Amino acid sequence: MRKYILYIGFLLLSFASCQEKEIIGYSLERDGLQFNYDTNALRVTVDFMKEYVTDTMWWGQPGNSPYDLIPKYSGDSLVKKGVKLNLYLMGRAADYDREFRLKAKVEEGEDPTAVSFLEFEPSYVFRAGQLKDTVEVYVLNPKVRKEFTVSIVFDVENSDPSLELGAAEKDEYRVRLINRYPQPREWDDNVVGEYTEDKYAFMVTILKTLYNPYANWSEDLKTLNEALAEYKALHPDEEVDFSFPEPPAPQWWNYPPHLAILGEYSMAKHTFMQEVLSAADYESFVYWYAEWDAVRLNQLLRNAYDQYNTEHPDNPLPFEQFPVL
């Protein structure tokens, strides 16, 4: 029993002596800059095939939960994506804004060109009075069908002299960059032609959606062919190694009243028809049998066909004249 009394007395004396000593504060001359994440969360995957945007609820307000995020498909038209970085200062908050810089690096064995796919501001600011802050960097679309891994690190040598690296395990933020368009399982060569990755990327870029075997391919292939022709015209020196088949006739084309006026389907004929008819006539022709004048529309198309070929004898229309009704 005596030894326990002596031990308790020793603890009380020790506590009293500690109270008399001055508490030692943080004594580093510089403050440590680091990323504010758990060590297993110091990474992000940026996939340029899709991005998630906030859905707008039916009453017009944006959603507030992860379930309100919906995929958006931009393809190669998306130039860059922003990545927000959470930062933490190990030390004291300053009473002035401090500039710092970020830079990119790749590990040995990684593609060194990956450093060019990160875009930084000339410098960033860790705001006065803050121990936590947030900045944004941009990941650029590499335009090649590859995956890259690149890291964001602090460039303390070119930052405010009062800053240094913080915890070693939190001084690197890894970015996995993906720009791949793998072949969909439902891809049908008979509908859209042979698959290539660049071809699928072009489809997503133009149609703003992923491959859908139940899509309206009559319209979608027409859109894709027109977009590809425009792209080639704008980039005459660029080799394009894919093409799209002629779109199938829209279902309504082969209805007897329509077929009698139009004859055999071709995309060129369909496009010409849309250019000749007004929007109201075209919609009426397609959807409302009782509201269009078959003889008038047939004669209008035939006259336009003859006029075009007369004015362009060296470049006639690539399809036969419309039938005589």
UniProtKB/TrEMBL annotation:
InterPro entries: DUF4843. This is DUF4843 domain-containing protein. It comes from the Bacteria.
